[in-house]
Amino acid sequence: MSTSRMRTEIGEQPAALRRTIDGLLPRLSDIGRLARDTRQVLFIARGSSDNAAVYGRYLVESHTGRLATLAAPSIATTYKRDLDLSGVLAVAISQSGKTEEIVQTLDWAARCGARTVAVTNGAGSPLAEAAEVALITEAGEELAVPATKTYTTQLAALAVLGLGLGADVDAEELRGVPDEVARVIEATEASAALPEIVAALARVPGAVVSGRGIAFGTALELALKIKEACYLHAMGLSYADLLHGPIAVVDAQTPALLVAADSGPTLPGTVALAERVRGAGAQAFGIGGGAGLAGASTAALAGPDLPEWVAPLGLIVPGQILVENLARALGLDPDVPRGLNKVTQTD
């Protein structure tokens, strides 16, 4: 079987991340100047970019001390209601920079008093032109419909945004991401757990995907990829929300995929959830979480050896490889999911 475009682009991520990180780290002072008179961050996005925004929100709140929220673009484009956005840094995220709803919402935010940043792979795109500061990712052209390298380079840009906002982390840890992603790709493809998890998921109609905190966006993105490329029902939930009721759907026909960084305050809860899932007679498949999550899971794929604040840049990669393998095992083409286009326009 020939290599899919999706798999090729997964393999291009280390180089894309290195270009993006090297290109954007010199922009820290630009971000700092723009954000100097702001106190809150508003993320504007849809689809995979919205999942990247979830990472950005947790990073900003946990490491810069600023309040961060996700925008509802319909307030701007459908309800057409102006808000007081003075003191707000509006960050719009779009891989193409051409989604009209996102461009319109960023323009609305500026009219309402916000300072504006764009994160996009589209240099010269309408979104990049609309923003005061444009953080251009260096993913190169992405041909497969499911976002892989454009998603991880968005995360890199948001990590740089966090640094520009004064995050209490070490910028040098971001520079180590590309090499670690390359290692994770190689390790995942050599893992005996990969075919085991693929075979298990190919036999069920759906799964629950869960994480918390800085890893929550990764859980949402993995669930989206399973739905997009494999046509399975996949519910992305914080494990806190999962425990409030939806845990009832986890059974022999609905396994749980649990994602976590190898360290951090949400890891113990993720391990405990894996133990609870297995205790209920269901399968729990871990992604990341170190030896603790691997030991509590039915089977597990190792994640990146990275600090929690940058772990999502590598944590999604085993999930991407899992989805690409699962799609092919189901007889599907992961490059061109039905009903989807590379640029999605919404009303």
From TrEMBL:
**Class in the EC hierarchy, top level:** transferase
Molecular function GO terms recorded: carbohydrate derivative binding; glutamine-fructose-6-phosphate transaminase (isomerizing) activity
Coiled-coil region(s): none
GO biological process: one example: carbohydrate derivative metabolic process
| UniProt keyword annotation of Repeat present | yes
Q: State the UniProt keywords alphabetically.
A: Aminotransferase, Repeat, Transferase
Q: What is its EC number?
A: 2.6.1.16
User: CDD domains attached here?
Assistant: SIS_GlmS_GlmD_1, SIS_GlmS_GlmD_2
Domain (SIS): give its ranges: 30-172, 197-337
Q: What is this protein called?
A: Glutamine--fructose-6-phosphate aminotransferase [isomerizing]
Per the UniProt record, the source organism is: Actinomadura macrotermitis
